[in-house]
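TICKET: design request
STATUS: open
ATTACHED STRUCTURE:
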């Protein structure tokens, strides 16, 4: 899903799309207001949030133990567990499992993990067609589009656009849209229901992700609002679930906390209309006869090893941070160039992929650091702190290279000026006398300072000059004011 552009390049194009900005502003504003009302109903929301963060941290601290426990429980329940180190291995496993059934079509539950690894494309290369069954994912697939939101992948589309997509494309994927289809939500939903029912009744293989995986019993959990996921999880004969290793919770009691946090943070509901749970296979004709769990790493171990970046693995994919982010609301999800958009994507993608690439190196800067994302996060991920940490990593250097027995960071191109400026600032701040002299000089010459930076500044200075006014320098520094005030008080 990489766009080939850095975030600033993609965002510059997106912000010029008036219709996109209107769609995003309307949708995120509506979701944001509903979530605030839903959260306000609970007097213990802060305690729930703290509990969710603590459970996740405890799980991540002993992730190896809980993974082994989950594996044993799944096998005991009749399932098969596969371990995938990266996207290529996960795609090979799933493709092989589907091919072994002899089927050429599969139905899919909405899954961020399968988007992350590009599973649909991998299946297509093997001659297998994957049908998305989530309504928003269906819209994206029919429109030959890309998701732009974690919860509402087609948030960048309005009703008229969706109607046109259904009319033009639905017939080439299966049952065509009804004649004279309008843009009323009920009509669009009914057209999708009729189209998908054929897929549900004929598909022999279902593919899903999971919102949670309970280690003590090996139970996978999917929460949704439409019921399409439950059809995928129960009707096919073979079910394959691709689950990130960070999705574990130790016990059912821990799961209780997240089933309160997730719906209010994502859909602003007290509970999800459909909460589906499955543990291995039941035998007979009740549910899938074969269950395969693919545990996906794909960079998560690297994130786990970073004490500052590790909290990103707490994420429960609620999308609350997207809905309050002023950058996301203006640029949209496609500008992030990866399956995870918004503030969480700005810290998760660089950790999963590394910061050597131009896109990944630009994502930590796709934020105003206003902190709204941290305030609404149901598991208290301090996203601004991680962003600053990743910015430091990008500024310090690019990819790690091996030289004999030691590892060094190869400096990233394009950041020499920034590193020089930071070194100069560090030198001044380490010398109080120099800092004091500089402050006094700035105060005494403030009348000579320009209000705007000159437009001819090189490199990043040019961008600053185009969009910022220089702050007014006070006549007296805080240090001098404090000393004078104390002297006057003591007289």
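STATUS: resolved
RESOLUTION: sequence designed for all positions
ATTACHED SEQUENCE:
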């Amino acid at each position: 899903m990489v766009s080939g552009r850095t975030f600033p390049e993609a965002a510059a194009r997106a912000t010029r799309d008036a219709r996109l900005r209107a769609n995003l502003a309307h949708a995120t504003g509506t979701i944001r207001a509903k979530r605030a009302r839903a959260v306000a109903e609970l007097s213990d929301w802060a305690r729930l949030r703290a509990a969710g963060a603590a459970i996740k941290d405890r799980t991540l601290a002993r992730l190896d133990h809980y993974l082994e426990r989950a594996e044993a429980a799944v096998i005991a329940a009749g399932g098969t567990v596969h371990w995938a180190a990266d996207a290529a291995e996960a795609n090979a496993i799933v493709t092989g499992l589907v091919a072994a059934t002899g089927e050429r079509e599969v139905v899919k539950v909405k899954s961020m993990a399968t988007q992350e690894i590009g599973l649909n494309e991998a299946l297509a290369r093997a001659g297998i067609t994957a049908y998305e069954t989530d309504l928003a994912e269906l819209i994206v697939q029919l429109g030959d589009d890309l998701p732009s939101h974690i919860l509402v992948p087609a948030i960048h589309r309005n009703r008229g656009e969706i109607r046109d997509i259904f009319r033009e494309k639905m017939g080439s994927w299966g049952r065509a849209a009804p004649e004279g289809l309008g843009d009323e939500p009920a009509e669009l939903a009914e057209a999708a229901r009729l189209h998908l029912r054929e897929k549900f009744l004929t598909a022999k293989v279902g593919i899903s992700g999971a919102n949670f995986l309970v280690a003590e019993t090996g139970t996978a959990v999917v929460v949704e609002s439409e019921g399409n996921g439950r059809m995928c999880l129960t009707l096919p004969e073979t079910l394959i679930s691709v689950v990130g290793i960070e999705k574990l919770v130790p016990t059912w009691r821990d799961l209780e906390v997240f089933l309160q946090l997730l719906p209010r943070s994502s859909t602003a509901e007290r509970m999800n209309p459909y909460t589906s749970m499955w543990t291995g296979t039941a035998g007979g004709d009740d549910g899938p006869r074969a269950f395969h769990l693919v545990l996906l790493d794909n960079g998560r171990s690297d994130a786990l090893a970073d004490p500052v970046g590790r909290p990103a693995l707490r994420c429960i994919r609620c999308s609350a941070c997207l809905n309050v982010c002023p950058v996301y609301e203006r640029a949209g999800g496609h500008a992030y160039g990866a399956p995870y958009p918004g503030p969480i994507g700005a810290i998760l993608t660089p950790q999963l992929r590394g910061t050597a690439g131009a896109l990944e190196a630009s994502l930590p800067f796709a934020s105003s650091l206003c902190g709204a994302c941290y305030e609404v996060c149901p598991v208290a991920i301090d996203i601004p702190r991680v962003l600053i940490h990743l910015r430091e990593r990008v500024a310090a250097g690019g990819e790690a290279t091996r030289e004999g027995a030691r590892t060094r960071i190869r400096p990233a191109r394009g950041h020499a000026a920034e590193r020089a400026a930071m070194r100069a600032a560090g030198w001044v701040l380490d010398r109080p006398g120099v800092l004091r002299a500089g402050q006094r000089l700035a105060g005494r010459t403030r009348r000579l300072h320009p209000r705007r930076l000159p437009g001819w500044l090189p490199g990043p200075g040019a961008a600053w000059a185009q969009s910022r006014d220089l702050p007014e320098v006070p006549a007296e520094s805080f240090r001098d004011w404090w000393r004078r005030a104390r002297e006057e008080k003591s007289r």
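CLOSING REMARK: The chain is about 50% helix and 10% strand. Confidence is low (pLDDT under 50) at residues 399-412.
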